């Protein structure tokens, strides 16, 4: 049997488990995330219900919703449990999930100092009146009456959740939100009974649990999402974290969901650079000191890692969120052993977190699964008429176009001029920390084979060939844009593609022209590859050998403005810039590039000309659409759909290209 089709067994994840009185068939939960669909609107509510319904059908043992505010000041653009209309709408979620045999928990939420005043219509509240780096506002210090009202708010919200049909609740006390703010000395400067030493700082979250328990009764499951690691210097200590976990267990929680990091922390927690399961040791540390089940989420995107962590006792359940965006059948495929058919979350954040960090907020979706969030608008049904579809281009957009068209029942042929599929994703996978892109290419290759797509490699189809089809989806992508300055054709000037694919060796004194997403990727690529692999360095250290010094390599990035990393989403840009700084990349902003010479790049900065020395110049100066005028010569019966960068290269990214390809394929027939 071919390796591709071998079923894999994930015995630890398949074991039944319990959270309080709630019997769960296996260990794969769906964690909390806001979808941008939490509105009192019929269409939005239908979409939210269908999103959760499909994840229940996809095998989630328990779904934990995005947060619902316990009080109006708890946060904006989401349901508020003191609003009767919002409660009525929320009641639709358990009905939708229960119809297909699923289980669902409501997360109870209060943002505290992370709430935006313009969204909640009042000043945010917090333990102490300290400015928030996230909102750039200063909250009001909570009075004892505010605290009493908040405790009652949690209790009432929990009672309401139970009354309207939810199977459990999760109390949000992590990621720097209100209850976490009371716990930390960074945000709690009070000197009353709710601040000071740790006993008093943890009083509010404990009193919340103690109020919630009688409100829902002894058998109703309570999960508490606690911070295992704030990633904030001077915040809660590991010893205090364990003390808090044990106090929560004593107060009556049935499980602990261990969160990582604050929104203002300078440590990546969910980006691609974080290793798979990279924070599981934090959950394990908590689990060693309590007897209730422990859940964890961060970067648990593949079953082989998650199964091993559960089997080895690091945690009891996994509760990732974004992997369920990438694949609505995340648990079902894992339990059936269909690792090859799993569409893996690549932690790019482009269509999920980045959509929640802009205003106005955008509906959350997924780069590798553009249907996420749109299930109710794009049901999985076959096209009424089967058509012959050609897809030109085997990059991410072309692969999605072919997959989606074939899934709808069309006869699809994919043409790719290169020797491998993947296009820009295969290039991106060469960047350290971005090898997850290979998972997406692997998924598409498997799905095209299963769906019967004819894949023709190393072929640029002729007009006569394409004339035999009913529809042609053109996804040929982009080509590099030259800077348009003298010297750009000198022999030591190279393209980023040639460098990343290993067709040219890096120089010793390198200048990168362009500071967009590609330029930043190239800088990280060059900076990281100055030294041996981490495994090799670890081997040298274990053997007591001196680790060889990194290759001497100077990397200078020239930028036309001070916007570094344009095109990289807000949730990831700071990580890339931080990594470039760590690697010693010299960024020179606000320059005019005048000429490339044998000795370097002549620039103008602050009204003065200067030469930046270089023995190699890498061009990362933008992109242009590949030529598509040839489509106008196709006969009238052929419908042409140009998508992605081939249609418009301005501000193009993979999320937009894949979404356009999916929509084009879906709208055929």
From TrEMBL:
Looking at the UniProt entry, the stretches that span the membrane are none
The keyword Flavoprotein is assigned to this record: yes
| GO MF terms, alphabetically ordered | FMN binding; iron-sulfur cluster binding; metal ion binding; oxidoreductase activity
Necessary cofactors: FMN; [4Fe-4S] cluster
Domain (FAD/NAD(P)-binding): residue spans on this chain:
388-628
- UniProt xrefs under CDD domains: DCR_FMN
Q: Which SUPFAM superfamilies match?
A: FAD/NAD(P)-binding domain, FMN-linked oxidoreductases
Q: Which Gene3D superfamilies match?
A: Aldolase class I (3.20.20.70), FAD/NAD(P)-binding domain (3.50.50.60), NAD(P)-binding Rossmann-like Domain (3.40.50.720)
Give the UniProt keywords, A-Z. Answer: Flavoprotein, FMN, Iron, Iron-sulfur, Metal-binding, Oxidoreductase
Enumerate the Pfam families for this protein.
Answer: Oxidored_FMN (PF00724), Pyr_redox_2 (PF07992)
Q: Where is the NADH:flavin oxidoreductase/NADH oxidase N-terminal domain?
A: 14-337
Q: Which family does it belong to?
A: In the N-terminal section; belongs to the NADH:flavin oxidoreductase/NADH oxidase family.
Q: What is this protein called?
A: NADH:flavin oxidoreductase/NADH oxidase
Q: Which organism is it from?
A: Alicyclobacillus acidocaldarius subsp. acidocaldarius (strain ATCC 27009 / DSM 446 / BCRC 14685 / JCM 5260 / KCTC 1825 / NBRC 15652 / NCIMB 11725 / NRRL B-14509 / 104-IA) (Bacillus acidocaldarius)
Q: What is the lineage of its organism?
A: Bacteria, Bacillati, Bacillota, Bacilli, Bacillales
């Amino acid at each position: 049997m071919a390796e591709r089709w071998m079923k894999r067994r994930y015995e630890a994840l398949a074991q039944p488990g319990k959270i309080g009185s709630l019997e769960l068939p296996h260990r794969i939960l769906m964690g909390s995330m806001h979808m941008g669909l939490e509105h009192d609107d019929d269409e939005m509510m239908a979409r939210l219900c269908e999103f959760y319904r499909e994840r229940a059908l996809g095998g989630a043992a328990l779904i934990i919703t995005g947060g619902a505010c316990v009080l109006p000041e708890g946060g904006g653009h989401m349901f508020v449990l003191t609003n009767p209309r919002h409660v009525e709408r929320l009641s639709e979620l358990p009905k939708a999930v229960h119809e297909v045999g699923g289980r669902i928990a409501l997360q109870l939420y209060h943002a505290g100092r992370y709430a935006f005043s313009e969204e909640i219509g009042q000043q945010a509240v917090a333990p102490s009146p300290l400015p928030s780096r996230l909102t750039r506002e200063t909250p009001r210090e909570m009075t004892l009456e505010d605290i009493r009202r908040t405790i009652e708010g949690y209790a009432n919200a929990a009672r309401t959740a139970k009354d309207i049909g939810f199977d459990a609740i999760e109390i949000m006390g992590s990621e720097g939100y209100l209850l976490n703010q009371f716990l930390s000395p960074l945000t709690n400067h009070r000197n009353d009974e709710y601040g000071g030493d740790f006993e008093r700082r943890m009083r509010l979250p404990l009193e919340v649990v103690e109020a919630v328990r009688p409100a829902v009764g002894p058998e109703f499951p309570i999960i508490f999402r606690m911070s295992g690691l704030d990633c904030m210097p001077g915040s809660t200590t590991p010893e205090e974290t364990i003390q808090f976990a044990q106090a929560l267990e004593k107060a009556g929680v049935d499980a602990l969901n261990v969160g990582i990091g604050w929104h203002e922390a300078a440590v990546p927690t969910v980006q691609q650079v974080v290793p798979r399961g990279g924070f599981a040791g934090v959950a394990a540390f908590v689990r060693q000191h309590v007897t209730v089940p422990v859940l964890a989420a961060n970067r648990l995107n593949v079953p082989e890692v998650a199964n091993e962590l559960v089997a080895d006792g690091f945690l009891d359940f996994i509760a990732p969120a974004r992997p369920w965006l990438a694949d609505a059948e995340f648990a079902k495929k894992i339990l059936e052993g269909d690792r090859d058919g799993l569409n893996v979350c690549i932690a790019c954040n482009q269509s999920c977190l980045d959509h929640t960090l802009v205003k106005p907020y955008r509906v959350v979706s997924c780069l590798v699964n553009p249907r996420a969030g749109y299930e109710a608008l794009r049901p999985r049904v076959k096209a009424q008429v089967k058509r012959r579809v050609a897809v030109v281009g085997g990059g991410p957009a072309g692969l999605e176009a072919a997959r989606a068209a074939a899934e709808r029942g069309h006869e699809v042929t994919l043409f790719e001029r290169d020797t491998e599929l993947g296009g820009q994703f295969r290039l991106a996978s060469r960047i350290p920390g971005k090898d997850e892109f290979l998972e997406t290419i692997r998924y598409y290759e498997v799905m095209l084979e299963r769906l019967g797509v004819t894949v023709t490699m190393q072929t640029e189809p002729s007009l006569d060939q394409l004339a035999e089809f009913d529809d042609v989806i053109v996804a040929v992508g982009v080509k590099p844009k030259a800077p348009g300055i003298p010297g750009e054709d000198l022999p030591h000037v190279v393209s980023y593609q040639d460098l990343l694919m290993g067709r040219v060796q890096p120089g010793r004194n390198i200048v990168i022209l362009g500071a967009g997403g590609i330029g930043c990727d190239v800088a990280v690529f060059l900076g990281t590859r100055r030294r041996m692999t981490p495994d090799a360095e670890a081997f040298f250290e274990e053997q007591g050998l001196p680790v060889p010094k990194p290759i001497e390599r100077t990397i200078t990035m020239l930028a036309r403005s001070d916007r570094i990393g344009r095109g990289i989403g807000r949730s990831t840009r700071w990580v890339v810039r931080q990594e470039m700084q760590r690697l010693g990349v010299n960024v020179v902003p606000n320059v005019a590039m005048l000429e490339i010479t044998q000795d370097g790049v002549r620039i103008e900065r602050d009204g003065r000309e200067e030469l930046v020395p270089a023995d190699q110049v890498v061009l990362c100066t933008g992109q242009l659409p590949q030529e598509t005028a040839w489509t106008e010569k196709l006969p009238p019966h052929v419908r042409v759909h140009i998508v992605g960068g081939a249609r418009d290269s301005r501000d193009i990214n993979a999320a937009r290209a894949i979404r356009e390809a999916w929509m084009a394929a879906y709208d055929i027939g």
